[in-house]
Amino acid sequence: MRIQVINPNTCLEMTNSIGKSASQVASEKTEIIAVSPSQGVVSIEGHYDEAIAAFHLLELIRQGEQQHVDGHIIACFGDPGLAAARELATAPVIGIAEAAFHVASLIATKFSIVTTLSRTKIIAEHLLIQYGYTHQCAKIHCIDLPVLDLETNEQETYQKLLEMCQSAKQDDGIGAIVLGCGGMAKHAENISKVLDIPVIDGVTAAVKLIEALHGLGIRTSKWGDYDYPNQK
Amino acid sequence: MRIQVINPNTCLEMTNSIGKSASQVASEKTEIIAVSPSQGVVSIEGHYDEAIAAFHLLELIRQGEQQHVDGHIIACFGDPGLAAARELATAPVIGIAEAAFHVASLIATKFSIVTTLSRTKIIAEHLLIQYGYTHQCAKIHCIDLPVLDLETNEQETYQKLLEMCQSAKQDDGIGAIVLGCGGMAKHAENISKVLDIPVIDGVTAAVKLIEALHGLGIRTSKWGDYDYPNQK
Amino acid sequence: MRIQVINPNTCLEMTNSIGKSASQVASEKTEIIAVSPSQGVVSIEGHYDEAIAAFHLLELIRQGEQQHVDGHIIACFGDPGLAAARELATAPVIGIAEAAFHVASLIATKFSIVTTLSRTKIIAEHLLIQYGYTHQCAKIHCIDLPVLDLETNEQETYQKLLEMCQSAKQDDGIGAIVLGCGGMAKHAENISKVLDIPVIDGVTAAVKLIEALHGLGIRTSKWGDYDYPNQK
Amino acid sequence: MRIQVINPNTCLEMTNSIGKSASQVASEKTEIIAVSPSQGVVSIEGHYDEAIAAFHLLELIRQGEQQHVDGHIIACFGDPGLAAARELATAPVIGIAEAAFHVASLIATKFSIVTTLSRTKIIAEHLLIQYGYTHQCAKIHCIDLPVLDLETNEQETYQKLLEMCQSAKQDDGIGAIVLGCGGMAKHAENISKVLDIPVIDGVTAAVKLIEALHGLGIRTSKWGDYDYPNQK
Amino acid sequence: MRIQVINPNTCLEMTNSIGKSASQVASEKTEIIAVSPSQGVVSIEGHYDEAIAAFHLLELIRQGEQQHVDGHIIACFGDPGLAAARELATAPVIGIAEAAFHVASLIATKFSIVTTLSRTKIIAEHLLIQYGYTHQCAKIHCIDLPVLDLETNEQETYQKLLEMCQSAKQDDGIGAIVLGCGGMAKHAENISKVLDIPVIDGVTAAVKLIEALHGLGIRTSKWGDYDYPNQK
Amino acid sequence: MRIQVINPNTCLEMTNSIGKSASQVASEKTEIIAVSPSQGVVSIEGHYDEAIAAFHLLELIRQGEQQHVDGHIIACFGDPGLAAARELATAPVIGIAEAAFHVASLIATKFSIVTTLSRTKIIAEHLLIQYGYTHQCAKIHCIDLPVLDLETNEQETYQKLLEMCQSAKQDDGIGAIVLGCGGMAKHAENISKVLDIPVIDGVTAAVKLIEALHGLGIRTSKWGDYDYPNQK
After folding, report:
1. What CATH code is assigned to D97-202?
2. Cross-chain Cβ contact E173/C121 below 8 Å
3. Does the domain formed by F2-95+205-216 have CATH 3.40.50.12500?
4. What's the Cα-to-Cα distance from D158 to each of B114, D143, D161, rounded to whole Å?
């Protein structure tokens, strides 16, 4: 099977890093195709960035469908364009925020999120409400470094992440930590080992959930709300 | 003061009709500028349409800001791109769905929505949750005619609207009806008179709310979540 | 148009101060009539005070209706007697708490409330639940000075208000502040300027919302729950 | 112990009937004192009636406290003035709506309410939200007869009540029925026997809950929100 | 009447202590029968302990029903096996957590819980959601001593309890405190006196609630969800 | 990897049928071990049945852990004993109700449940609340045939299921159907084909979710609430 992992921003380093994380957990038979739009925003740090990125990512969804990929991943923690993408697709589409929430809820009663900028907190909060996870998320922490620092300033962001995850583990009454950015995927395993608590990254979670849906023969429902966009 | 009323789809008849409705309630000193994008979708009937429309409407928000308009109205009942628009603007930005909900809640304990297609119901439901109006909305009814019929098939849509509003009044235990599409604005007054119940249209509601904010000297907060998009 | 602004307590200084705030934002064509009951409680600082005040304010609503005012404002942050007043009135009736919440939600994702006494917090909390704003209110702060100090001890209350608004701005992750007492209206503009964040006072907000409803020709619904009290 | 049962309307037949119901379940050692205000409204059928009744009932609470009664019951299904009464009292105060909800939730997973007029439905709905019982109440039914018919038209109201309770039992997926008016207390036992399902009346429920609190030595908390009204 | 008070763990000291607390508030005519299973877990400190305890307590419910007791109390703060017990019983069954929540909500707007171990917090949180008390519980505090210390280390646990209740009273904005363990019943009265705030213990609360139901002639509903277990 | 699929009732036909469904979707490298307790209840049709079944299934969880299985599935739609099982296990444990909800929410905005008996509806409702899926579940339908009929009366139950799923598809405004019983697994594929709408069975969903967690190296968190049961 082939999964298209879409980094909705235009930062190629992040696309590569996300693709690598995805490949590491993919089954032998799964091919990971990491893509990103050629136009749009170089990082997604607010509602405006999301709206621009959503527009461009929908074109990639369309292309992926034409190439008959077996699933799409929206690799930005705000899950931008998710419902719109599902209207375009028959293959399943999964956002990395929802993927991480689903997985966290299967192995812990509560989780905390560690994400990038304070101004993106509201986006995570809206997703928690929309998806029904408010009572399972103890707290949202922000390292308050720009998203691109995850690529250009790798060591410092790792250090900040580690510290914040450590204090989340101690103080939040949780059983798991969710990393709130596609660019953090590469650090999940290390932090989990160092802190001895499950640390969930949405990119890898989404890969395995797409594989799970594929194994079930379940695709995006075309009955009702996710039907193809109306022809005018 | 000048208010930019944005019809986010490309149907000029609807832009004109919305502009006319807006002008009818605007104060003498308020200039209504009705605009619509030159590109995008001809009607908004789902999440995909919304995402495309949001992209193009943001360009109009930007232009409006450069022209120093005093407020922006997003004249589509799903309030597409609202949070993103607020990041771009210092002038207030109001969506017609939220406008209608606010006004309805000031004069009735409960309202019902009468909108176009069943597949847009989910969009209204998400807004009700996000804005906090779930317990004040009794029911969402759909006339199940395409959005464009509101322009091309005016008499039939009016008839269907009237019947559905009538049965909402009788059966839903409500005190007001909210019309769920910018293209329905022109019918609000008539239906209200015929049925003798407040019928609220978001376009006119948004005009008066923008004027209210203007009179208060209150603009979109630039402290926190609605700050200008981050420069990278 | 004429708007009756009702201070539901018997403190005339507060009635005057509220009337002045209301007049400052009213349109040229709007006449503000500030009234208060001759009997009742001198300040409203709990449920009992509210119940007594509500009784007397309803008489003022009735008188206002006889005088054909075009709107009523209940200028106490607990919105006492609001639903009862709407049953008596055909003109719209707006409470200053709901007015402030509506306005705040149009320009910020979240707000905090700064109010007077800790024991009135529960009243604000119940309103947030009833109106559907719990997820948009970050925190309720109390300066813990009696309501009457707002008139007799103006400088100290301003100072306390300012400090509390400042810390709300820094710590609460908000975009706007709501002042939780009619007697605070006079300080809103100053604090907003000093702190550079929208500070919303319900008295002025309610004036502009009533004007907005008037401009829309929308009055309190007499179909259903807000119908006139039953004759026995 | 002495329990003051307050019928907040001025209909003496109802006061007597409520007092009789209360006495039938009271312990031997409990004296029931059924009172009603000499002024106010003759029946409570909306928010306005509630506000007027609350004012007058508070005077009775005060008198009861001076007479050192051991508990107060507010025998109107909207629990008017409940929080205000608790500020005045050290003895416990219980409303018949909350009493009925508490009891119902102890013996069934869900209940339906059968009350008088459609326009009082909104009052019950607000109480369910405020008290936290929304998910335990399946439906609110209205017999749509005026409250006073419960006294003047006893046989017809009984018949209507019985029919509605019967259909609630069959259709609502419930385990108990709550009667939504103090004047219905006298019918609870009969309906329960005829329909073979627990039918809960708030008047009798409140008597036993007050006795329970008395037996526990638990009185209205004077720490915090229910402290005595502030002296000015 | 006879009430069976079931300590669902096998610690006899706790059974005795709970029985004694129950007897102290029971009416003269009420006989308290304190029982505990001979098999199971010696203390209940998590979901596993609850599941094991529930199994054994159901046998005691069955025995109690055969002996025609007039009510059952499940004297563990997680209310383990409550719904299952109600299916077996015609007599009312009450858990001590729900009993305490009911009583607290009748005399205060908000309460805090002081319980034993941090890992049992999630159990209390789930009950608050299920019963509808989330908005009335300000905070859950844990003394973080094992349940059995309540018997073996009485003085230290009392001291810890007292300190935590003291800080809950000061900081939580509450009107009452709920003790979160059957083994804490014996301390409720003392702490309440020392701190001058209602301190509610679920064991005694449940006794009086069962007596109240008995006085009303209300038993567990056998219509619907709590009907006897299906015969296969 | 080896997954232990636990049918918590003692009906061996159902254990076999569930095992077969599980095997059909399992990856080549996954071994399915279908087990059921030798004691307990022959079918689970209420809270009492659940409590008994939970006790016995925990012994199977313990045995599975000793045999180092890589995951456990609780194949009863009420997810009995789930939290308790997670305390015993390091391997992930998934209930079939949560599994089905997770999968449904990834491919549709809303789903309906079609389950067996009306009296089990309350169990599903509680799970929807606890897991956060209330707003995504449109309706719960019951075919009102005993669970064991799924084995002994296969054709009739299939026919009833099909009809109910058909009407759910037409009337509920959904995009997917969730089958509410382990014994229905065998019919999911057929119904989905006939009705052309995704029909999700929790048994197969849980298999693929366990495989997904295994692929991520994510196991039940032993930090916090799901830590091993306390030693006394």
Report:
1. 3.40.50.12500
2. yes
3. yes
4. 38, 10, 5
